[in-house]
């Protein structure tokens, strides 16, 4: 007999903006001063404040920071908007009937369209725990 907790799968959780930035800043071979300069910040302490979640990343600094950290700006935008202005972000996505895709997600969409002959075929998710299988008719 399968226990209830064996049936419940844990999917990765969305990182907070602070967690994401802390991880990416730690992974890149740049000082916080270099990152701050590339983004047009006068004081490198602002980078620490972003990492600790003490200060929100201004929307107009998402693109320069993403470039400095060599990360996908669309993904960072989505994280920032979801965390800082969730209701507004959801409203924009609903009105636009779309979502902002990261480069990796866009690659998946393009592959899906190629496989389906761009025929708007319905996808069936086989297993979300480790691998996504796309089945089309």
Automatic annotation (TrEMBL):
InterPro entries: Cro/C1-type_HTH, Lambda_DNA-bd_dom_sf. SUPFAM superfamilies: lambda repressor-like DNA-binding domains. One of its GO terms (molecular function) is DNA binding. Gene3D superfamilies: lambda repressor-like DNA-binding domains. Residues 31-76 form the HTH cro/C1-type domain. This is HTH cro/C1-type domain-containing protein. It comes from Candidatus Gallionella acididurans. The lineage of its organism: Bacteria, Pseudomonadati, Pseudomonadota, Betaproteobacteria, Nitrosomonadales.
